[in-house]
Design goal:
The complex is a heterodimer of chains A (261) and B (255).
Chain A lengths: L14 H18 L11 H13 L2 H33 L1 H14 L8 H8 L4 H24 L3 H9 L4 H39 L4 H10 L3 H29 L10
Helix pairs in contact in A: 2-10, 3-4, 3-6, 3-8, 3-9, 5-6, 6-8, 8-9, 8-10, 9-10
Chain B lengths: L1 E13 L2 E13 L4 E5 L6 H8 L7 E7 L7 E4 L11 H7 L6 H14 L15 H14 L4 E5 L7 H15 L5 E6 L2 H7 L2 E5 L6 E6 L4 H4 L4 H4 L1 H20 L4
Parallel strand pairs in B: 3-7, 3-8, 5-6, 6-7
Antiparallel strand pairs in B: 1-2, 1-4, 8-9
The chains are: A mainly alpha (261), B alpha/beta (255).
Chain lengths: 261, 255
């Protein structure tokens, strides 16, 4: 049995890349030797080739633009409303008494189940997709913002009372920054959910977009092109998280060296 | 500013029954006086302070401030310090005087950064400072308000013994120039005798006043080496009053 320690040894910078490359190589081999049919699992090299081809003829770009517009629009609406209502329910006990039971009732509903209803209400255009993504983002952001506000240490409120802050100063200079780390937790969860809902909505009801493209190439059994779309989705997720990391560093500069980081 | 407590009481709820937590307390703080309140843990001394600072309403009785023409400006120093982690030291100190015009606010903030030896940490985040330096900023925030009333809730009890001694010396030096009526909560007899003009001893829960003593020596004499022996009689007197209460409070008895 190994002894536990407070100071686990740092990994070599090569460990992760070497393992990833080895796995890719193994996958490539499985495909090339015919161990797995390239129809069911195309090789990394053929996926890469398909990706470049689709990028060159503008097909990926067109789908990407459509999808990015939807996800950013829905994400912006959902997160702004989530932060605003989370703050309101966290601060006002009256608003909380009405709002939070409703949130707990609606939160577990799979948002995708509402898409047919949204299409009925808003037609088959962009609106139902935007609303679907916004709803998926809204709940985790709201719940995390709310819990960030309600778990704020009482001492900060005492200080605000003694310093005779106005309610606007209290919200902007005390409550919002106190809840900021928690808000970012919500934004991260929302980012993952928005990507899932984007693809689902595009598969169900869109002519253009990455989700529609995935379905299209699935029907045509062009699995290397299908996988190229999946790679693009994965890259979008990575960039999304990287942007959030950057924003977090910028907007929470006061505990960069906090022990929990 | 004169502070008058008249029959102040506070209760709390336990199993749907009201249990007395504090008082009744009646007491007058003279303008410009430094009063220490000392009592066993749980006696309600912090509750008394919170009521005075307007953080809690009293259940019975009143707190009055004289002159009562304008609402009093109250500065408070907390045991938990309570610097806002997302504001630099400078912004934290300026928080209590946000109502001043920009120029005056900056001047006053700079002055208190200087007085408390924090000039080099003006743009630092609170977490980058030691506990002692953080509490210096906490004191600067309260004093920069130039308050009529200064409330201090065991301000040094979270600090190590040496830092505590150093900071109480600084406070003693500083206080004469502050002109704020001061109420200082502590459980440390040494500290109370060193800093205050008057010492109020409180009983165990529900806290009532069981002793009201005066410290006669002028402040400059307290910094001399023989203050420890000169104040021995007074400390003994306070300890005698406290001993029974503290022992009973430890066993969980209330009165």
């Amino acid at each position: 049995m190994k002894k536990i320690t407070l100071y686990p040894s740092a990994p070599s910078p090569w460990t992760a890349p070497v393992v990833f490359l080895a796995l890719l190589l193994l996958w490539e081999l499985c495909s090339r030797t015919g161990l797995v049919s390239s129809l069911y699992l195309p090789s990394p090299s053929s996926i890469g080739a398909a990706f470049l081809l689709m990028a060159a003829d503008g097909e990926l770009y067109g789908a990407f633009i459509n999808s990015v517009g939807r996800i950013l629009g829905g994400y912006a609406i959902g997160s702004l409303l989530g932060v605003a209502l989370g703050m309101l329910f966290g601060i006002s006990r009256q608003a909380r008494a009405v709002g939070m039971p409703l949130v707990h009732f609606l939160y577990p509903v799979p948002k995708l189940a509402l898409l047919p209803l949204f299409i009925l209400w808003f037609g088959i255009g962009e609106t139902p997709k935007l609303i679907l993504i916004a709803m998926g983002v809204f709940f985790p952001v709201l719940i995390n913002t709310y819990s960030g506000v309600t778990r704020m240490p009482v001492i900060y409120t005492k200080v605000s009372v003694i310093c005779q802050l106005t309610d606007r100063q209290y919200i902007r200079r005390v409550v919002l920054p106190a809840a900021m780390p928690s808000i970012f937790t919500g934004l991260r969860l929302g980012a993952g959910i928005s990507l899932i809902l984007l693809v689902a909505a595009e598969m169900l009801a869109a002519g253009k977009g990455i989700g529609a493209l995935v379905l299209h190439y699935g029907d045509l059994m062009l699995t290397d092109r299908l996988m190229a779309c999946v790679v693009l989705l994965a890259l979008m997720g990575l960039v999304f998280q990287a942007v959030l990391n950057w924003l977090e560093k910028r907007y929470i500069p006061w505990d960069q060296e906090h022990p929990s980081r | 500013m004169k502070v008058i407590w008249d029959q102040v009481e506070k209760y709390y709820l336990r199993k749907k029954q009201t249990v007395p937590a504090l008082g009744p307390v009646s007491l007058t703080l003279e303008d410009g006086s430094f009063t220490a309140v000392i009592g066993p843990s749980g006696c309600g001394k912090t509750t008394l302070l919170n009521i005075t600072g307007g953080l809690l309403p009293p259940d019975q009785g009143t707190v009055r401030f004289l002159p009562d023409a304008t609402p009093p400006l109250i500065g408070m120093v907390f045991q938990q310090i309570g610097l806002l982690p997302w504001m630099t030291i400078r912004e934290n100190i300026a928080l209590g005087i946000h109502f001043l015009p920009e120029k005056e606010r900056q001047e006053r903030t700079l002055r208190w950064l200087n007085i408390m030896g924090l000039s080099d940490f003006s743009s630092a985040w609170p977490y980058q400072l030691s506990g002692g330096m953080q509490q210096r900023a906490g004191i600067a925030r309260a004093l920069a308000m130039e308050p009529d009333l200064l409330l201090m809730d065991e301000p040094f009890s979270a600090l190590d013994a040496q830092t505590r001694k150093l900071l109480s010396e600084e406070l003693l030096n500083l206080w004469e120039s502050v002109h704020a009526t001061t109420l200082y909560i502590t459980h440390n007899i040494e500290e109370a005798v060193y800093l205050a003009d008057r010492i109020i001893v409180m009983s165990r829960r529900p806290g009532r006043i069981i002793g009201d003593l005066t410290v006669d020596a002028p402040r400059r004499d307290r910094m001399l080496a023989d203050w420890a022996s000169a104040s021995a009689g007074l400390k003994e007197k306070i300890w005698k009053l406290l001993k029974i209460e503290a022992a009973a409070a430890m066993k969980g008895d209330s009165q």
